[in-house]
Design a protein that fits this description.
486 residues, alpha+beta, eight-stranded antiparallel β-sheet, 11 helices, 27 strands
């Protein structure tokens, strides 16, 4: 709805108003005997077709504009917007049962709190009102054991290019959103908790700025955009609290008493197939069982398999099995493929956005298994905000996942004669939702004829299994050292 109000001059007693949403012209009375331009609150309310409540005895008016309750009083310079006070430069005047407001001061308050589309030119005495809705409407703060999550409710998604954030040296976290219109009243009056001490928001031209005063330092901060519902989610991570109960919980969580081994593919999903007919599903099941037997023989660790036979297991069910078993690490075993049959080697992946064309290609091939599942509604395209959301949920395990992946690469490099292709990042559906350190091992390229021949040999598969077993044991020892120090 667009309304144009033309403030003629101090000499004339009326402001001409044209409401584009209704096509109706009207007049707003003014006081002309003062250097300060005053406008009729009643007429202004009528020009915006807003609801009006009056208390003549107490000389108060309440205007209901764009969902806001705006209280004004004669002989007072304060305006209450939803019970939050704002001060005009001079007091409002009372004339013939009406309240006259200092136009420039009142409209400035209205622009910052209720009608962000207002633009007033005091030189031309011209008011242009585009009754638009705020696009950043509310804030919710949620305290977690390892940090605080802040949710900014929005009416639409924003381009990621228009969002930026940083923490200054004085402990303020700033989030700026170009093209956003922030409801400062709703945000500045928000309830704070956790690491958030205070919220201050401001509209600077066409950019919304939200500032969060932090109670203490943070380990990391990141944001992502959620589309259902529309919101910008900020995660501020802090160290885990050092209470005795918290330390016990942490120790219980990191004690490596259950390991989940995931043999990729299976059943109607053969995985990739080599030149000589070797199927990925059979190779990785054998390697997985060999790892499990080594762990069962040499440790008291409980081993959970996502499959022990040639059966099809949906991707989503694999991490569900891991979580329900309270697994402490999740290792998914695969073999690789590439159209270029000369490529060979082993690599270990983490759940992150793919950093190279090769990583993206590997993830695309492994994720293609969901096409064989009867119900696929639980999968979303693993890009943009969906990937960010998935990796954020697992961010507390990222360092441990990196450590485990590096140890696996080191141990494989010792025992098998194949190129070490390093630790990489890609978006694998099978790793989503694993509430524990998790990696995906590509133990060789079955598309390479020489590597396929090696993968068909029991001794070679045993070497791979022993390497992964050794890496798990070193990871276990490193976790136990940390627990002993706490």
């Amino acid at each position: 709805m667009l309304i144009i109000l033309c403030l003629i001059s101090f000499i004339r007693a009326d402001i001409r108003v044209f409401n584009r949403s209704t096509g109706i012209e009207s007049q707003i009375k003014t006081l002309s005997n003062s250097k300060q331009l005053y406008m009729s609150a009643r007429d202004f309310s009528g020009a915006l077709s807003s609801r009006l409540y009056e208390n003549q005895e107490r000389k108060k008016l309440v205007l209901y504009i764009a969902g806001r309750r705006i209280k004004i009083s004669a002989k007072s310079s304060f305006v209450m917007v939803d019970d939050q006070p704002f001060q005009m430069p001079v007091i409002a005047r009372e004339r013939a049962g009406d309240i006259y407001l200092p136009a420039q001061g009142f409209l400035h308050i209205l622009k910052s709190t209720t009608l962000p589309g207002i633009n007033y030119d005091p030189t031309r005495e011209f008011l242009d009102v585009d009754v638009v809705r705020f696009t950043i409407t509310a804030i919710d703060v949620e305290e977690k054991s390892n940090g605080t999550i802040v949710r900014l409710k929005t009416r639409k998604p924003f381009s990621e290019r228009n969002i930026s954030s940083f923490i200054n040296k004085h402990g303020w976290y700033y989030l700026t959103i170009a093209g956003g219109l922030v409801d400062t009243v709703a945000l500045n009056g928000a309830v704070t908790r956790g690491i958030i001490h205070r919220v201050e928001s401001e509209q600077i031209g066409e950019t919304a700025q939200i500032a969060l005063k932090l109670r203490s330092n943070v380990i990391s901060h990141e944001w992502y955009q959620n589309l259902d519902p529309n919101e910008i989610v900020v995660t501020l991570r802090t160290p885990l609290r050092k209470s005795s109960r918290r330390i016990k919980d942490v120790k219980d969580r990191w004690r490596l008493d259950t390991i989940v081994l995931d043999a990729g593919h299976g059943g109607k999903d053969p995985g990739t197939i080599g030149k000589y007919g070797t199927k990925e599903k059979n190779v990785v099941l054998d390697i997985t069982k060999r790892i499990g037997r080594l762990l069962e023989k040499n440790t008291g660790i409980k081993i959970v398999y996502t499959r022990t036979e040639d059966v099809f297991v949906p991707v989503w069910k694999r991490t569900k099995i891991a979580n329900e078993a309270n697994g402490k690490i999740f290792v998914s075993i695969h073999v690789n493929a590439n159209p270029n049959r000369k490529i060979k080697g082993f690599e270990t992946y983490l759940l992150q956005s793919g950093k190279s064309a090769d990583a993206i290609e590997v993830a695309s091939r492994e994720n293609a298994v969901i096409k064989l599942e009867e119900v696929r509604s639980q999968y979303k395209e693993l890009t943009g905000e969906n990937l960010i959301m998935a990796t954020m949920a697992q961010s507390m395990f990222m360092k441990e996942s990196v450590d485990l992946a590096a140890m696996i690469q080191i141990e494989l490099d010792k025992k098998i004669d194949s190129p070490n292709r390093g630790v990489k990042q890609a978006g694998f559906y099978v790793l989503i939702g694993a509430s524990m350190p998790n990696v995906l091992v590509e133990s060789g390229f079955i598309s390479n004829p020489s590597e396929e021949r090696n993968l068909k040999k029991p001794g070679y598969r045993q070497n791979i299994a022993e390497s992964i077993y050794n890496a798990i044991m070193k990871f276990k020892s490193s976790r136990e050292r940390i627990l002993a120090e706490e």
